[in-house]
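Journal club side-thread
Mid-discussion, someone asked how the predicted structure for our own chain would compare to the paper's figures. Pasting it here so we can look after the session.
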Amino acid sequence: MIAPWLQQQWDGIDLSACPNALLLHGQAGIGKADFAITLAKALLCEAPFGSKKPCNGCEACRWFDTGNHPDFIALVPETHRRFMPNEALEGIDGDLSPSKKAKALRDEEGDSPEKKEKKYIAIDEARSAIDGLAIGTHRGGNRIVLVYPLEALRVDAANTLLKSLEEPPSSTIFILVTSHLDRVLPTIRSRCRLVALPPPDRASGLAWLRHEIASRPELKVSNDELETIFYEQGGAPYATLDFLSSKQGQNDKDELFVSIQASRYLLQGLAQGVRIDWLDVAEKTHKASFAVLLASMQRWLADLQGSAQADAVRFYPKHAGSITTLSKQARLEKLLRLWKLVTQARRHENHPLATRIQLESLLMQYQQIFAD
């Protein structure tokens, strides 16, 4: 399904003359995964030329929906399997996909099903997905290799992918998806056609969310709360919907739910400015996702800069009063220096060393931007 705010980008893709590699990039939680999967399905669709694709009626579309299309290869970490068609990923020649192989191996070894899922794509998974690309396609049409998220590739796995991009196999199209274009190897970027996917404006994003929530009566949320969560997620509708789903389940172990609750506590601390008890904030939030905490802090700092320089608050309008007051107290040079540090920290957010120590350091430096 294509989100309405991405329709223009969808219309700009010529399915009959698609390049060997597309790199879809944009903010997290705006519908990139659905866009990529629909694109993969359309490129595999066997409807007659000139027909709307995907047609959802041909044999290829039916196979795709069940996760059994032999020419669709999904290279995703365990944490992202739920985004794939029917969560039943198949590889070349009927082999299990890398993610299914990993799950099968865990089952054989007797690992607990509650074991934390991997957030990265290892080199053996990349090789497994790419090894059979030299042979012809099963259906005589396109073969699609979807890599999502691209930044989850380990360095050695990325180099393995690069070799295939340098000499793309016949009839093979790579669809790469990332929320962090700056983390993608320049050598990979240079071999792809970049497609920027924008976030929706406030009105479009909230309208889409209200429509989705109306079709899911189990999701109960007021308009005020919906807007608050929408802003907390940086204006990302899909991320907002994911949070509401986890909240509805009241699963206090759900990573997203825990992280958002922690980020709210973080914002309360940041709103204290120079009076922030950074040791207490770090103590009560450091077990949450470091990526979510860094994103929240980065958005807060962006709003402080926006308020100080342009009298504009983008991400946290509910905190506009506090942000405006703090922006007048902040030392701009220190604020910009901290912004750079947080941005650098986000490059390694999925592999943090001593998360609590890093968080304490950043919060202590946050307090200092208000000091003389």
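Post-session note: The radius of gyration is 22 Å.
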